[in-house]
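This follows on from our talk about sequence and fold. Go ahead and set the record down below:
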Amino acid sequence: MGITAWGPTMWMRLFALSALLGAMLTMAAPVRASELIAPFVGDYVGSAEMVAADGTRIPRDMNVSIRANKEGFTVEWTSTTRKPDGRLKSKSYSIDFLPTDRGGVYSAGMRKNVFGHSVQLDPMKGEPFVWGRIRGDMLTVFSLFVDENGDYEIQQFDRTLAEGGLNLKFTDWRNGEPQRTVETFLKRQ
């Protein structure tokens, strides 16, 4: 039977099959990093008390800036500790996140290799191994450190979208034991 001999029913079936295949391909298409990060883009500020494993409370001021970039996104954050004697101690970080073959999972491009490509650091050299993920309304950044004795530390920053900003939950574990935690609201600027 030639194509010209197909009746209207066959053409309707072929059209329906084409539409179904098109819809399946659209659903399977990877979501671009810029689409996933878009709701998080902005500048946020807040303060909280870091709670150490021994219960000690340490006041902190925090800010985070999240930006889309050419390939993925950048997260920059600063944490400022107020010492009892009035001194301030700040730590700042800026990390570019690049898409991986796993949807919503991002590698950290923390340095450039000899070819100019962003690559991850090596935790076996005492450098942090960092990655991120976006699941729904939560952006999480993980940092893994391995010390010279083989002990490990994992830091987890959960930043969840909330009305007017982000809810931040930070947890620091050493060899599976929680060391420090912070939970606070960061207001969108």
Remarks:
- The chain has two domains: 1-30, 33-188.
